[in-house]
Amino acid sequence: MALMTNIQAIAHTLEQQMKKDEKIVTFGEDVGFEGGVFRATKGLQERFGEERCFDTPLAEAGIIGSAVGMAINGLKPIPEIQFSGFMLPGFNQIAGHVGRMRNRSRGRYHLPMVIRMPYGGGIRALEHHSESQEVLFAHLPGIKVVIPSTPYDTKGLLTAAIKDPDPVIFMEPKRIYRAFKQDVPEEEYTIPIGKAKIVQEGTDLTIVAWGAMVREVQKAVKTLEEEGISVELIDLRTISPIDKETIINSVQKTGRFLVVHEAIKSYGPGAELISIVNEGAFLYLEAPPTRLTGFDVIVPLPKGEHHYIIEPKRIAYEARKLIKY
Amino acid sequence: MLTKQFDPLKKKNRMLQILDKEGNIVDEKLVPNIPDDQLVSMYKTMLLGRIADTKALQYQRQGRMLTYAPNKGQEAAQVGSVAATEQSDWLVPAFRELSAWLHKGWTLENVYLYWYGNERGSEFPEDVKILPVSVPIGSQLNHAVGLGMASNIQGKDEVVLAYVGDGGTSHGEFHEALNFSGVFNTPTVIVIQNNQWAISMPTTKQTKSQTLAQKAKAYGIPGIQVDGNDVLAVYAATKEAVKRARNGEGPTLIEAVTYRLGPHTTSDDPTIYRKDEEVEEWSLKDPLTRFQKYLIDKGLWSKEQDENQREEYNDFVNKTFKKVEGSGLVPLEDIFDYHYEEMPSQLKEQYENYKRYLEEEGS
Description:
The complex is a heterodimer.
Chain A (H helix, E strand, L loop, with lengths): L1 E3 L1 H15 L3 E5 L15 H5 L4 E3 L4 H13 L3 E5 L7 H11 L2 H4 L9 E6 L14 H5 L5 E3 L4 H13 L4 E6 L8 E3 L12 E4 L4 E5 L3 H14 L4 E5 L2 E3 L3 H11 L2 E8 L4 H13 L8 E5 L7 H7 L3 H13 L1
Parallel strand pairs in A: 2-3, 2-4, 5-7, 6-7, 10-11, 10-13, 13-14
Antiparallel strand pairs in A: 1-8, 6-12, 9-11
Helix pairs in contact in A: 1-7, 3-4, 8-12, 9-10
Chain B lengths: L1 H4 L9 E2 L19 H26 L13 H8 L7 E3 L5 H7 L3 H9 L23 H15 L5 E6 L6 H12 L4 E7 L2 E2 L2 E2 H4 L8 H4 L4 E5 L3 H16 L5 E6 L18 H8 L3 H11 L5 H23 L6 H5 L8 H17 L2
Parallel strand pairs in B: 1-7, 2-3, 3-4, 4-8, 7-8
Antiparallel strand pairs in B: 5-6
């Protein structure tokens, strides 16, 4: 057991898995010598050599495309994309090949790869550094999309992603890379992909969130509890495939549903979750299932970002509206 | 070294040619050492490729096949290159590599099945290391580089032969792949099949470069332009590139100058963008007739053998297509089964709901 931040949990997990499985290689822009701009791969090149942890030219399609070839030819690549906002040149590879290779080759070639990338706002960043584009990836068949929210989950989910025979997009909420520490066991463990976590049980309202938003919701929940409102908080953990069962069971119990996400509203992941609630718990609903999300705008630069980022106060406000409906 | 002798930036002696358009040897010193039986087998694949291609076009015109991308005229660029690799090497195709596929061992039945609209066609024999058809342009080259990176890291003895068209050289991923291949010194041989047209766009509008081969220079790797309708030239350049790759000396870019005698696909009408005279001129450079003449001159082949072989292949292709035509529709499981190792619950639910519908309402 050791106290770790999210970023430490990533570095620790990569090191543990690379030690156990010599097929694992990790690479990307500044990943090797520097250990990544966020230091997620710090020390790996020193420990495992330049063949297993290396820098690549600055080219996202090249990074993901060569990972495809490596995965077909016996390796387990873990490419890092420096910021998810830079992924779009590599999106051609993800949509055009990564999600399709198993199907196109009738199961002959599968891609056991984990594509890591920091995502999300709240770090006073430049343009293209703050997006939450999980739904772009979740819309593609053949791919799994995972987002952890705590150091403990980071290790368990990343380990599961590395062991998964299918490609996993592992999105890391960079806003909480170093926000807090948590006890993380030294020994290997996995958290199943596709299973949500009930962070706390409650009876009046179900709130679903993931990534950095989980902590914001937790703050709101404290206020709501003081007002006598009992919230069931679910950390979705996996954006694709979604754990429908946990959500439906919860809403059948509470009768109210709120999803909180950083991604923009229209066609966002909240719409999918509300559909799931409507299909599975319609007759139990006491208020319209609701989403509290980013606006349909480009994430503003830091001086305007406070309007975009969802605060606990606003979460509590929306929750009260649902209770009073 | 051929890449030095035929430097793509030189004005004279820019393009490697060994067999001229009449099928005569241009320079005896350049003739690659290919065993007689291999020469015959290369010719046979080109012939089968030509017949299977011609028939596919006919089947499509008869409404019996889906959209098809014809290969006529590009047989030498394909067979000349793939024949210079070993069975243990990788083949990364674009989508117009019929003769290369057949030579590598993708069965005609499965090739036809694929163009017939059944993904089952993309099943390859176990010992054939070939990637599926890549419809997105140019992006397959990065896979070829990754295959080579993995070979290097694992100390495997493998070369990766990849294809791209002249249009593909405009794509960003072409440049990323060449850059990566140079930086990581991968055993990759990239063959550009410059067939002069990317649908309606001529190569002269695709690039301002004098040659496509010279683009290699920007990435610090060898490049060479060859007569792509001359099977011996394509073979010689590829053989040298493969040897370099196997020796750990890295990638090579080969521009095979050839011509697509047919349309881009069966949905395309080339008569609206190119002149008949151009097609006629290129027909005189047909890779098949020149190779045939060379083999006959060498006493390895005869007109009579040729006629018998054509008859045999005609029969084989007809039978193969009949079989494909009888393959029917794919079962429901087939469209769901291959996306994940284990079907996620949401997908399983969609599958089961539809199955229930079929059971209750009849298919």
